[in-house]
Amino acid sequence: MPDLPGLHAGDPARRIPPASVARLTIYLRALNSLIADGTERVSSEELADAAGVNSPILRKDLSHLGSYGTRGVGYDAQFLTRQISSALGLTLDWRVAIIGVGNLGRALAGYPGFVSRGFGIVALVDADQLVVDTEVGYLRVSAVDELEAVLERTRTNIAVLCVPTSVAQEMCDRLVDAGISSILSFAPVVLQVPDHVQVRKVDMSTELQILAYHAQRAQEPDLGPISRAQ
Amino acid sequence: MPDLPGLHAGDPARRIPPASVARLTIYLRALNSLIADGTERVSSEELADAAGVNSPILRKDLSHLGSYGTRGVGYDAQFLTRQISSALGLTLDWRVAIIGVGNLGRALAGYPGFVSRGFGIVALVDADQLVVDTEVGYLRVSAVDELEAVLERTRTNIAVLCVPTSVAQEMCDRLVDAGISSILSFAPVVLQVPDHVQVRKVDMSTELQILAYHAQRAQEPDLGPISRAQ
DNA sequence: TCCTGTGAACTCGTTCACAGCG
DNA sequence: CGCTGTGAACGAGTTCACAGGA
Predict the structure, then answer these.
(1) Is A116 on the interface with B (CB under 8 A)?
(2) The dihedral of CA A88, A90, A92, A96: what is its sign?
(3) Of A213, B72, B129, B207, which one has the fewest beta carbons inside 10 Å?
(4) Where in the numbering of this chain does the CoA-binding domain appear (chains A, B) (predicted)?
């Protein structure tokens, strides 16, 4: 099937491969840091180094957005930042509610990288009466009974789930019923949600276990097939 | 090249694809939860459902470890748990040091899922004199000046980096120089490390941005190539 | 007959080499 | 001439269909 007229690489309708989307967020951070250091123009090689990838894959990733570089020269750092932000939808305003204000929820509420780049925390919700109505990072904590009302009033479009594992699915169901379709979960469980809901998981125990796997293999190099063959 | 004698699928020397390793940790959790509910035997279909994957890929993942199921029946939940744990290296003891005892470091120190399954927190380290020598979750916080001595004394083999972005690379270098080769970082930067060092990153702002990308696309269904073609 | 284990087909992602433009 | 943008080759990962043992 030939491309339709008006549908070139830079068209926002063109879906960006998931692996590219993940890397685009890294490029954005690398660009920020380069711009902070006074960089105006950057080559694919330089940006790739800063992002910890190789330059062909960076160019291929950027090509999904369109042709925003200058051949023989490189990319305008500011302009490229805007293009990536726009492609990722970071120019819209994202209203984040943190559900569960324990140690982790508190850490997130105070996390500076959270507020930057279009994400604003608009609500904190907790079940513990000792926490409800206290102030955490300039926001008053709401009671979980009022969850649905708070989500509606604040026009929350992203929820961050920091509740104990045992109530994570239940709370997730309430979020979905309240019309939330983007959830970032810190609970170490597989959440069951309808197809239209996007769930991303941040999971420290999985990451630790992956580290353990690699460390274990590094400890036993003599078990490798090559050395065993000799 | 034919397989060498003694090198079958279940041999620990056989490298497990990264994508499978990540899922194996999920199966482990799903199995735990099934066992807690009294399950003794489980089919690939049931376990796959609990883990949120399809059954062929679960069977393929398990086949990297060996043939631990019974055809026509399924898997013994306890036995399979032991086999996966062993393949991931979770039977060894992993000594974790938390570097940076801010909000996030504190949250991790108290995180129950952390201590379970072979991971034990053995040290807390911070640069803030107000925090040093205080007790956090039954451990005394050590000064960052003593980092190298603490890592050696506690025989730390995994470090968790929860320090501010600005000092993350510097602290990472010190960890590497002190002989640490497994690092879990919460800092939103690309850490430069030698090849033999494994770094895993947990990155909330990346995850949020990925959610934003999908939510943005869901908001504008009319831009899809199919509907535009009509 | 049931459900596991696995080659073979296929899809997705990465690497490469170079055409093309400034 | 330099660096971007991209088709084409390659490799990793997933799906499928079914062979094969309990």
Answers:
(1) yes
(2) positive
(3) B72
(4) 89-190
